[in-house]
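Researcher: We plan to redesign the surface later, but first we want a full-length starting point. Tokens attached.
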């Protein structure tokens, strides 16, 4: 029976073992608490000879949510989940209808920001909006203000729970926000 080869004793655990709470592709690997580990792990893995990389991959199979990770690290081929996400981001979306006041679909908001809207110069915000923070709720981060081709203004925020919220800034929305302040 052939001997089973194991990674050397200097092997590091893969990122999903050390930080199971950070998904593949998350900002937590680039600027969060997983960043230092990922940097060390990449240096460790890239220093392995080809044969040891194969043994490492066999010893530490990636979970389904990390499918394609080793291939990405080895040759830059995007994992299926990342390629699918990029394709969805480029799928054409409908521009907002005149009566639409709130858009919550993440991919639609991203597409509108990239292809349909332009960011409002911060110096112009006070022209139409009393305060850039008016209406901001606990647990959300303001991303910015955008203007549509039709002259409509939109406020885009990122709730802590994830996703994007795109609100049309119109007289009705401003009245609602002012009433909450009274």
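Model: Full-length starting sequence:
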């Amino acid at each position: 029976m052939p001997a089973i080869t194991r990674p050397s004793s200097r092997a590091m655990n893969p990122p999903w073992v050390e930080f199971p709470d950070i998904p593949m592709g998350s900002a937590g690997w680039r600027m969060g608490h997983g960043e230092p580990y990922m940097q060390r792990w990449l240096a460790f893995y890239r220093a392995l000879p080809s044969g040891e990389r194969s043994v490492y991959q066999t010893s530490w199979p990636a979970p389904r949510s990390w499918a394609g990770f080793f291939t990405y690290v080895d040759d830059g081929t995007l994992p299926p989940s990342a390629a699918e996400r990029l394709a969805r981001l480029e799928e054409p979306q409908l521009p907002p209808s005149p009566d639409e006041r709130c858009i919550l679909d993440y991919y639609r908001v991203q597409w509108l920001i990239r292809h349909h809207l332009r960011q409002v110069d911060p110096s112009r915000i006070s022209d139409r909006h009393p305060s850039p923070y008016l209406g901001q709720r606990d647990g959300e981060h303001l991303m910015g203000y955008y203007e549509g081709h039709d002259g409509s203004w939109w406020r885009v925020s990122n709730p802590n729970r994830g996703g994007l919220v795109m609100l049309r800034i119109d007289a009705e929305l401003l009245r609602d926000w002012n009433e909450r302040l009274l």
